[in-house]
Design brief:
Number of helices: 4
Number of domains: 2
CATH topology of the largest domain: Methylamine Dehydrogenase, Chain H
Oligomer: single chain
Number of strands: 34
Radius of gyration: 22 Å
Largest sheet: 5 strands, antiparallel
Strand content: 35-45%
CATH superfamily of the largest domain: YVTN repeat-like/Quinoprotein amine dehydrogenase
Strand order of the largest sheet: 1-4-3-2-33
Helix content: 10-25%
Structural class: mainly beta
């Protein structure tokens, strides 16, 4: 894993000086960003980027490897933790100021699920079904657990237990300290959204079209609600109501205690992105590319913002703005009240991971006890889903087979081309100056 900071050190060591154009230099000093929140987001060029919350300007970028997958990031104070499905297959800790690497640990397979931090431990699942507990201080592995297939969901940590879903169709409850299995519940299809805890119940969804309410201590099913489409969007729980979006183009509100339907709303397009719930408003994107703000009290649509392509990412609400990524290769900042666009930052590739807001004054490790949903200091109740739908898997396999003809390791093809051009220019200037000396 290479950051723009570490690349500059490499370039200086060999005397070439090409990093400024090849990989980019942070546009503001680290000191100037000490107290300023940033938006961090991954894209399918395997770059992790930090954007200015005010105007979307790129502040730094870090390359996570050579395969085209969006890196998944979470944050704890001034540290960003990121996993990526790359050639290096690592989970890394980065400094939020410049993206420089603090530590990195090699996993047995790539990561396509967002990590979670809780009580000094980073929890993350991988493509071969291995689930890791990693010490955030030094990257050492505390314990591992093996599911039967890939884990593409963010884990939920609550009251000494960890709840995860797997492509083997199972929900697992693990002991946070040891990784020991507390119970297992099997559904009929893959699970691509994190379970949510509320009181004594755990709510889990499956691509078998159903939402399940389970006893969080035993895993016993309390009730099941079946929709007409696969569910890969995580539920949110608020005031005794479970709200979930489905592939059948509907959003459902259910009584959290018994699963009885309270209301439903048509979204005109399938829902694959998980929602965020803030101050009575549900923010959710659909396959039509629309980011919607829905007042759950009267079920009215406050506004709808078109991103021009399908949305697979969870919106993040912070300080009057909603941040969301889209398959149109852009990250958007939208005014939370009006739904008007504040800024749009175009990226070189599809955005399939949810933007996060990182601030040195905010400790997101406190967010991981997900009672009543996964809340944060901004009042968000949300959970990130896998960046890949079932239909995307064939595309991913085809991308994995592509080969790069020539590149400088760590810089990619574009960086290599630009870098070699600059290097040639610099060397020619040096030679010219030498020739002009008397």
């Amino acid at each position: 894993m290479d950051s723009s900071c570490s690349r500059r050190r490499l370039v200086q060591a060999v005397g070439v000086g090409l990093s400024a154009a090849a990989v980019g230099i942070p546009r503001a000093s680290a000191e100037e960003r000490d107290e300023t929140p940033i938006v961090v987001v991954g894209a399918d060029d395997n770059e992790l980027r930090a954007l200015d919350t005010e105007d979307g300007e790129e502040l730094w970028t870090t390359n996570m490897g050579s395969r085209n997958q969006s890196p998944h990031a979470t944050a704890d104070g001034e540290t960003i933790y990121v996993g990526a499905d790359t050639d290096s297959e690592t989970v890394s800790a980065l400094d939020f100021k410049d993206g420089s690497e603090l530590w990195s640990v090699t996993t047995d397979a790539g990561v396509r699920a967002k990590p979670v931090v809780g009580n000094g431990t980073l929890y993350v699942g991988t493509e071969d079904g291995t689930f890791y507990a990693i010490d955030t201080a030094d990257g050492s592995i505390s314990w591992e657990f093996e599911a039967n297939r890939a884990i593409r969901t963010m884990p939920t940590v609550s009251d000494g237990s960890i709840y995860i879903g797997s492509d083997d169709g199972s929900v697992y409850a693990l002991a946070a300290e040891s990784g020991g299995v507390e119970w297992t519940y099997e559904t009929a299809s893959v699970i691509r959204a994190p379970p949510m805890v509320n009181g004594s119940l755990l709510y889990a969804v499956s691509n078998d079209n159903s939402l399940y309410a389970l006893d969080r201590r035993t895993g016993d099913q309390q009730w099941e609600y079946e929709t007409n489409g696969g569910i890969v969007s995580s539920p949110v729980v608020e005031d005794g109501t479970v709200i979930v979006g489905s592939g059948d183009e509907m959003i459902y509100a259910l009584d959290a205690s018994n699963g009885r339907e309270q209301w439903e709303i048509s979204t005109t397009d399938p829902i694959r992105a998980s929602p965020t719930f803030v101050d009575g408003i549900l923010y959710i994107g659909n396959d039509g590319g629309n980011l919607m703000a829905i007042d759950v009290e009267d079920r009215s649509e406050r506004w709808s913002f078109p991103t021009r392509s399908q949305i697979r990412t969870t919106p993040t609400v912070h300080d009057g703005s909603v941040y969301v990524g889209s398959d149109v290769n852009s990250v958007f900042s939208v005014n939370v009240e009006s739904g008007n666009k504040t800024w749009e930052t175009e990226l070189p590739a599809t955005v399939r991971t949810s933007p996060i807001v990182v601030s040195p004054t905010k400790d997101e490790s406190e967010d991981t006890d997900f009672e009543n949903g996964s809340g944060d200091d901004d009042g968000n109740i949300s959970a990130e889903e896998s960046d890949d739908s079932i239909e995307d898997e064939q595309r991913d396999e085809e991308n994995d087979e592509q080969e790069v003809a020539f590149e400088i390791p760590g810089f990619g093809v574009e960086g290599t081309i630009v870098g070699l051009g600059i290097a040639g220019y610099v060397l020619s200037r040096i030679e010219r100056v030498r020739n002009e000396k008397p």
